[in-house]
Write a structure and sequence with these properties.
about 30% strand; about 575 residues; 5-stranded antiparallel β-sheet; alpha+beta
C-alpha cells in the first residue's frame, strides 16, 4: 500500500532541532504502570531516549483541570518512578515531561483495584428514521446491549431532512431534564450534519470554510450564531458559509462539550458494493460481536507513519503516546497499516500520510478498504482533506464499512488522548476529553476546533469481559432462581441485577459477587414480570493499572403470580 501520495499539509518543513534528525518517538514518552495493593503504590515505567536530560513527573486526579507542581524531578537516564503517596480505588492521571534534544510528553491514567463502573448514565440514541423499520430488530439488540453495559437509553427517530437546530433541541431538552445523568449521544445513520466555522486545519486554503461539526450536538450551553462568517473560497460548496445559510459561525467551541458523542454514518459511500442499509446492519453485527467477545481483539497496536517528525508536529506521536498505556509498549510496532491487519488482529492502529478525500499516502485508499477485511477495532488516520468526513467515499469513514473496525478519528491536528480507556472508560469519554483539550494533555494545533469528531459508537471499551450465557430465571412463590452458564473471564464472580414492572432501571440485588452460577432472589412481593440480568466481574490488569471490569449483561424474565403486599 506504499503509494506515497505526498499532498502535504501546506506547511513549510523546518530542520530538526539542534541539527539532529528527530522522530515521533522523540516527541513521545511511552508510559506503562504496574500497581501494588499493600502497601499501595504505582510504579511508572517509560521508554528511554538517548537525547533525554531530565524527566519531570506530575500527578493529578482524573477529573483535575490543572497540573500543579511536579512530584518528582529525575535525570535523563531514569526510566522509572514509584509513587507511594496514593490510595487504592482512586483514579490518578500522570504526566511525564522529558527535556533534552526534543521536549516530549506522555500521559497515563492509573489506579489500584478501581471499582466497577455499573451505571454509566443516560445515552441519547438518535436513529435515522429511514433505518428504524428495516433495522428494527438489530437496533433493539443494540439498545439491549447498551442497557447491558449500564446505559439508560433515551431514543429519538430523526428525519434526514430535520433542521440541525431541531435535532439539537431534542438533545438539550433531554439534558436539561437530567443534566447530572445524561452523558452521551450516539448518532446512528444519516442524522443531519451540522456545519460550522471558517477553518482549514489540514493547511489547504481551497478547503477553508465550514466543516462538519458534530460537537454542536454535544455542547449544551454555548452560543452558536449564523450572522458573521462570509466565506465562499472553498472548491466544494459544502464549505461555503454565509450569514443565514444554516451553517454556524463558530470555528472553536463556544464552551466545553458536555456530552460524549459518536456517529456511524455510511451515506454516500458508493465505493462499497453493499448498500447504506447493509453497511449499517453489518456495523450493528460487529458492534454486538465485539461486546460479546465473539471475536477477541489482540491487545497490540500498529503505527504506519508517512510524515515523520514534521517540524515537531509529529502526528504519529498520537499513536506512540496512547498505545503503550492501552496495550503495552512491547505490543506496539511500526509497520504497514493494511498488510498488518489483513490477517492479524490489532486492537489499535494509527496511520498518517499526505491525503485526499479518499486516500492517505503510504496507507491506501477507500477502494482498498472496499476490497479488504482488516482485523482492527480502534483506528486513527491522518492526512489532508479526509478529516472533513462528510465527503463522498470519505477515507475516515471507510474503515468502519469493512472488517472489524468500529471507530476512527482524524488523529494529528489535534493529537487525541485515549489513556482513560485503559482503566475502563468508553471511547466517548476520551473523545470528549480530546475535544475540550486546550493543553491539559497533548497540546497541538487544532485543539477545540469544531472539526474534531469520533466516527463510531462512543460507548465501546478497550477491554471486554466475555459475558455469561444461557441465563434462566424461574419463579417459585416468593423466590426466583437465576442460573447461568459461567463466563471464562469472570474470575471475580457475578453481579445480579433486577427490575420489575414498577421500575425503570435495574438495581443490583447481591451485595457481594456470587462465585457460583446460581442465585436466588427471595423478594418477589409484587405480581408481574421480573427481569434479571447477570454480569461477569473480572479484576482487569491493564498496562496502566487494575480495575474491576464488568461483562455484558445477559437477561431473562420470570412471571410472578403472587401478591403478597
Amino acid at each position: 500500500m506504499k503509494t506515497h501520495l505526498l499532498l502535504l499539509l501546506g506547511l513549510i518543513l523546518c530542520p530538526a532541532l539542534n541539527g539532529i534528525a528527530q522522530t515521533c518517538n522523540d516527541a513521545s514518552v511511552e508510559i506503562t504502570a504496574q500497581v501494588q495493593t499493600t502497601p499501595p503504590k504505582i510504579t511508572l515505567n517509560w521508554v528511554s531516549n538517548s537525547g533525554a536530560t531530565a524527566h519531570i513527573i506530575y500527578r493529578k486526579l482524573k477529573t483535575g483541570t490543572i497540573w500543579v507542581i511536579p512530584i518528582a524531578n529525575l535525570g535523563g537516564t531514569i526510566t522509572q518512578y514509584i509513587d507511594s503517596s496514593i490510595s487504592a480505588g482512586i483514579y490518578y492521571d500522570y504526566k511525564i515531561q522529558r527535556n533534552g534534544s526534543a521536549q516530549a510528553y506522555g500521559y497515563i491514567n492509573s489506579g489500584i483495584e478501581l471499582p466497577a463502573l455499573e451505571a454509566r448514565g443516560k445515552l441519547v440514541l438518535l436513529i435515522d428514521s429511514t433505518m428504524a423499520t428495516p433495522l428494527a430488530t438489530k437496533i433493539t439488540r443494540l439498545q439491549n446491549d447498551l442497557e447491558g453495559d449500564g446505559w439508560k437509553i433515551i431514543r429519538h427517530d430523526i428525519s434526514r431532512t430535520a433542521a440541525v437546530t431541531a435535532v439539537k433541541a431534542l438533545i438539550v431538552a433531554d439534558y436539561n431534564a437530567d443534566p447530572a445523568d445524561v452523558k452521551a449521544v450516539f448518532l446512528f445513520g444519516r442524522i443531519p450534519v451540522p456545519y460550522s466555522g471558517s477553518i482549514y486545519p489540514d493547511g489547504h486554503p481551497d478547503h477553508e470554510g465550514a466543516w462538519p461539526a458534530d460537537v454542536y450536538y454535544a455542547e449544551m450551553n454555548g452560543t452558536w450564531t449564523d450572522v458573521t462568517i462570509n466565506n465562499t473560497v472553498a472548491n466544494d460548496p459544502r464549505h461555503h458559509n454565509i450569514p443565514g445559510d444554516g451553517k454556524f459561525d463558530q470555528s472553536q467551541l463556544p464552551s466545553d462539550v458536555e456530552l460524549q458523542i459518536g456517529r456511524v454514518d455510511f451515506a454516500n459511500m458508493p465505493a462499497f458494493a453493499a448498500s447504506e442499509q447493509q453497511l449499517l446492519e453489518n456495523y450493528l453485527d460487529k458492534d454486538h460481536d465485539y461486546r460479546h467477545k465473539v471475536f477477541a481483539a489482540t491487545h497490540q497496536a500498529v503505527i504506519d507513519d508517512n510524515f515523520g517528525y514534521f517540524s515537531g508536529e509529529a502526528f504519529a506521536a498520537t499513536g506512540w503516546k496512547n498505545f503503550s498505556p492501552l496495550v503495552g509498549t512491547a505490543n506496539v510496532t511500526a509497520a504497514d497499516y493494511f498488510t498488518s491487519m489483513a490477517g492479524t488482529s490489532y486492537l489499535w492502529s494509527y496511520g498518517c500520510g499526505g491525503g485526499s478525500y479518499t486516500s492517505a499516502g503510504g496507507i491506501g485508499s477507500t477502494s482498498n478498504f472496499a476490497s479488504s477485511s482488516l482485523q482492527g477495532v480502534f483506528s486513527m488516520l491522518f492526512g489532508s482533506y479526509f478529516g472533513d468526513w462528510d465527503a463522498t467515499d470519505n477515507f475516515l469513514r471507510a474503515p468502519l464499512a469493512q472488517g472489524t473496525t468500529l471507530t476512527n478519528v482524524w488523529g494529528g491536528r489535534p493529537h487525541w488522548v485515549f489513556t482513560h480507556m485503559a482503566m475502563g472508560e468508553p471511547i466517548g469519554y476520551d473523545a470528549r476529553v480530546s475535544q475540550n483539550n486546550i493543553g491539559l494533555y497533548f497540546a497541538s494545533y487544532g485543539g477545540r476546533l469544531i472539526h474534531n469528531a469520533l466516527i463510531g459508537d462512543p460507548t465501546l471499551r478497550n477491554d471486554v469481559v466475555a459475558p455469561v450465557t444461557a441465563v434462566v430465571a424461574t419463579a417459585s412463590g416468593t423466590n426466583c432462581n437465576i442460573v447461568w452458564t459461567s463466563s471464562p473471564d469472570a474470575t471475580a464472580g457475578y453481579y445480579i441485577y433486577m427490575k420489575n414492572d414498577t421500575m425503570t432501571d435495574y438495581v443490583r440485588i447481591n451485595n457481594t459477587p456470587v462465585m457460583g452460577n446460581l442465585y436466588t432472589d427471595t423478594c418477589l412481593l409484587y405480581p408481574g414480570v421480573y427481569t434479571y440480568m447477570v454480569r461477569g466481574l473480572k479484576m482487569e490488569t491493564s498496562p496502566s493499572g487494575t480495575y474491576y471490569n464488568l461483562g455484558q449483561g445477559i437477561t431473562d424474565t420470570a412471571w410472578n403470580n403472587n401478591n403478597l403486599v
